[in-house]
Amino acid sequence: MQDFLNALVAELKLITQRGKVADYIPQLASVDPAQFGIAVCTPSGDSFTAGDATTLFSIQSISKVFTLTMALGKIGDGLWQHVGREPSGNPFNSIVQLEHEMGKPRNPFINAGAIAVVDAIMMGHEPKECLGEILSFVRYLAKDDSICFDRVVAASEMQHRDRNASLAHFMKAFGRLRHDVDKVLGTYFHQCAIAMNCLQLAQSGLFLASDGIDKTMGQRIVSAQRARRINSLMMMCGHYDGSGEFAFRVGLPGKSGVGGGILAIAPGKASIAVWSPGLDQQGNSLIGTLALERLAQFTGWSVFGQK
Ligand SMILES: NC(=O)CC[C@H](N)C(=O)O
């Protein structure tokens, strides 16, 4: 595995078409697109890294996997009254379906859905308390207390919040949000602004790779059924309107973020994180997807069949 990852990093370095770095806030626009990192962690405790695997980046929408897990823990299947579980086939920040579907977001991974999930886990608490809980959960999963929010990224998202604010107000108009819109958005932007590296991220996904148990900690995080369901949502919805393409090419549950990271789960085999900041047209990491495609070919880990 280590030899494969080293060769992969060398190969990917040569590619000049690296996609377009997210530019809706200056903090993301200034990240160097030449970077690439990968970490592969196995349930038995092995971890392999290559490239810029210990460089911090903004996990953005990958955080939606962690808040979904928390929300299911808090309110169980009641969550599905607030958010659906169908792929949207639309961009991550699209508003169109909300009007026809009574303000109920298609799934927890598009922006509207993640905003509804945050509203569901706030349960009357202030953003600060809710954010403390989110950060503790991520630190626990990653086994790393150094993980923090990038406050500059969060503040900048708040400043440029028009699009997400539209989604939130629209849902509120349908009676879908219980809390103050700016408080929900402030919480959502901070969760997206968690800074992590590939190794920390791959560690955090281990429970999804072994039926809800993080074997390296000897802890059950969620039931086997819940882990399976979270993986299915990642497969169907984790890459927005690029989810079909990701399933076709990689064949693993995955969740992307506009910071260029992707968390992918090979059930029973490994939790994998890749990061390269250049994005494709759907806002998913271009080189990161290619790396996962190569890894899936090399290992035969696609859930749809080997080799
Ligand atoms: N796709 C993403 O990573 C989007 C997250 C970003 N914070 C937003 O709300 O627009």
TrEMBL record:
It catalyses: L-glutamine + H2O = L-glutamate + NH4(+). Its EC number is 3.5.1.2. Substrate binds at residues 61, 111, 157, 164, 188, 240, 258. Pfam families: Glutaminase (PF04960). Homotetramer. NCBIfam families: Gln_ase, PRK00971.1-1, PRK00971.1-2. Belongs to the glutaminase family. This is Glutaminase. The lineage of its organism: Bacteria, Pseudomonadati, Pseudomonadota, Gammaproteobacteria, Alteromonadales.
